[in-house]
Amino acid sequence: MSFQAVRKDRADLEREKRFLIAHAAAHDRIYRYLRRRTVNAATAEDLCSEVFRIAWEKSANDDRLSIMILFGVAKNVLRNHDRSAARSARLIGELCAEPSSEASARDSPLLEALERLKPDEREVLLLTYWDGFTSREISDLLNITSTAIRMRLHRARKALGHLIQTEGAEL
Predict the structure, then answer these.
(1) CA–CA separation, 130 vs 30, rounded Å?
(2) What fold characterizes domain 102-170?
(3) Which has the closest alpha carbon to 30: 44, 43, 18, 20?
(4) For the chain, how long is the longest CA-to-CA vector?
(5) For 68-120, what is each residue's pLDDT tens digit?
(6) What is the distance of C-alpha 82 from the center of its chain?
(7) Distant-in-sequence, close-in-space partners of 67: CB < 8 Å, separation ≥ 6
(8) Helical (H) or strand (E) element with 71
(9) What confidence tier does 171 reach under pLDDT thresholds 50, 70, 90?
């Protein structure tokens, strides 16, 4: 076994030790914090495990896992969860409010304009406004640079606005 392998093993043990100490010191407090702010225990457990998954990743950089850092992570995880739940509720509301017949859905100028967009433009618009993703998240999802996503989004907005104006004038 080489010296580097021994040093790496020792570093891994130190990382695991730091993580376990932080976990033991903060787990119950983090769980209670999340439990008070969520609707059920299962959600709080899931969010708590996400907090410590992120903490494990942070411990790879020799970052100290103080209780304040862990609560900051928990706050961000909870905020992401709340945004996701709000998007889901909004989506369910929109789906319930949509017309039931295919013909009446096609009468909407917005839906007609969306159908007439290029597929790439429609996709970036829907990911941004329907799914609530940021340009950085979309770039990761589509393997395209953030700059290209922002340009595509700009063009898509412009094309959609033009299509809506022309269709609105026809009605």
Answers:
(1) 32
(2) Arc Repressor Mutant, subunit A (1.10.10)
(3) 44
(4) 78
(5) 889 999 999 999 999 999 988 887 787 677 555 554 545 577 788 888 889 88
(6) 11
(7) 22, 25, 26, 29
(8) helix 67-97
(9) very low
Half-sphere exposure of 102 (CA within 13 A, CB side): 0
Distances (CA, A) of 156 to 21, 29, 146: 50, 46, 15
Sequence letter at residue 48: C
Number of helical H runs and strand E runs in the chain: 8, 0
Is residue 90 within a helix (H) or strand (E), and if so which, with residue range? helix 67-97
pTM metric for this prediction: 0.52
DSSP label of 52: H
CA distance 109 to 111: 6
**Domain 9-96 fold:** Rna Polymerase Sigma Factor; Chain: A (1.10.1740)
